[in-house]
Amino acid sequence: xxxxxxxxxxxxxxxxxxxxxxxxxxxxxxxxxxxxxxxxxxxxxxxxxxxxxxxxxxxxxxxxxxxxxxxxxxxxxxxxxxxxxxxxxxxxxxxxxxxxxxxxxxxxxxxxxxxxxxxxxxxxxxxxxxxxxxxxxxxxxxxxxxxxxxxxxxxxxxxxxxxxxxxxxxxxxxxxxxxxxxxxxxxxxxxxxxxxxxxxxxxxxxxxxxxxxxxxxxxxxxxxxxxxxxxxxxxxxxxx
Length: 240
Prior knowledge:
- The chain is α/β, with parallel strands linked by helices.
- Helix content is 20%, strand content 25%.
- The model has no long low-confidence stretch (mean pLDDT 95).
């Protein structure tokens, strides 16, 4: 499995021959790419309806767009996404997309949609656990699993459900503070998730969320976690 960070919360995940794009927002200072520079992914996953997460969904309207029914329905109206390409599923559900198994879990955040957030709420925001094997209650040491936490605060489900049962090997967690967790709470999340690799995201995009990822690395070390903090440059890839 290969993961690539395009800045903010935008990730490209390759699972076998399947390519997934999460929260396409290329209007951030960490990426040098435009949406048209990417090959069309097999699916676009959206965590919630805020503009800095769905800003470039329209550039991928001819592929599958997946998320909660409320968010996907709103985006389908806004961008002319065909009914067959709108994949609505919900918290706790797992869908198979090519070689990938994608499980939706909630995130602690808000979810207004549209300009000024005046559209109806998109329901609960989400995060995604992406694996190359189907999640079961039997631990699979041979699987590779990546958790995109979405925009979230610290929540005990990371300790009680996502870590022990969905068993991510790596997690991308927001560290920007102000709108999400900051470095300290994100480090606690990494410790609770018991991952091998931790990727900081959702920072340095706007002045309120400017952070030094080394502060996050120091906080992770302070928890006693053995996780390796990998602070990617924009458009940089990592092989899990």
